[in-house]
Amino acid sequence: RKEVEQDPGPFNVPEGATVAFNCTYSNSASQSFFWYRQDCRKEPKLLMSVYSSGNEDGRFTAQLNRASQYISLLIRDSKLSDSATYLCVVTPYNTDKLIFGTGTRLQVFP
Amino acid sequence: NAGVTQTPKFQVLKTGQSMTLQCAQDMNHEYMSWYRQDPGMGLRLIHYSVGAGITDQGEVPNGYNVSRSTTEDFPLRLLSAAPSQTSVYFCASSYSPGTFYGYTFGSGTRLTVV
Questions:
Q1: Which residue out of B89, B105, B107, B110 would a mutagenesis test of the A interface target, given it has the greatest number of A Cβ atoms within 10 Å?
Q2: B-proximal residues of A, 28-47, CB under 8 Å
Q3: Contact at 8 Å (CB) between A57 and A106?
Q4: pLDDT digits (tens, 9 = 90+) for A11-65
Q5: pLDDT digit string (tens) for A47-57?
Q6: With contacts defined as CB-CB under 8 Å, which chain A residues touch B9?
Q7: Tens digits of per-residue pLDDT, B43-100?
Q8: What dihedral angle (degrees, nearest 10) is formed by the CA atoms of A44, A50, A54, A55?
């Protein structure tokens, strides 16, 4: 079983839609969680950290469920510019080595 | 600031050749890592460093060497290239990658081994 699993998609949504991605992780001792964004043929960039209480950054909301070992990302009012691959990232306990999921591709159409 | 600079951007190697992928950062970050990205596999950690003189293996270290003689530079050496090493390689640096600082990635090196 992969340490971090994501639905590869693609998720095809119209502009203005709300879309949610989930990610599951296998190591219950994982300590830090993130969402990165990667545009086609570009490097990944940190989108947001995920905190236990949930957190919001503009149109983006991230949540963590430690009991079920999953992380979610909600994007409201989707823009064409949100089209990208979203990478779920986890750090195991007591290490700064980041473990990346394979990513979920989002395509927003007009 | 240049951020994280990787060279070259593209490279074609013949099987058995060796080469060094260069990575330099100007942000005085202690943490640096090398990842490779393959279709359907996500980013996989090759080698990792928490400061000058300190390196550690990641998930897929075989066939690669690293050294960290300065804070700024973290080169990745392919000892004897194999077609299985055809991939996109990303170097990344951070103050503390497991926090809200996250990693800053270079733009990548696309390597083809024939």
A1: B105
A2: 31-32, 34, 36, 42-46
A3: no
A4: 999 999 999 999 999 988 888 999 999 999 999 999 999 988 889 999 999 999 9
A5: 999 988 889 99
A6: none
A7: 999 999 999 999 999 999 999 999 999 999 999 999 999 999 999 999 999 998 888 8
A8: -50
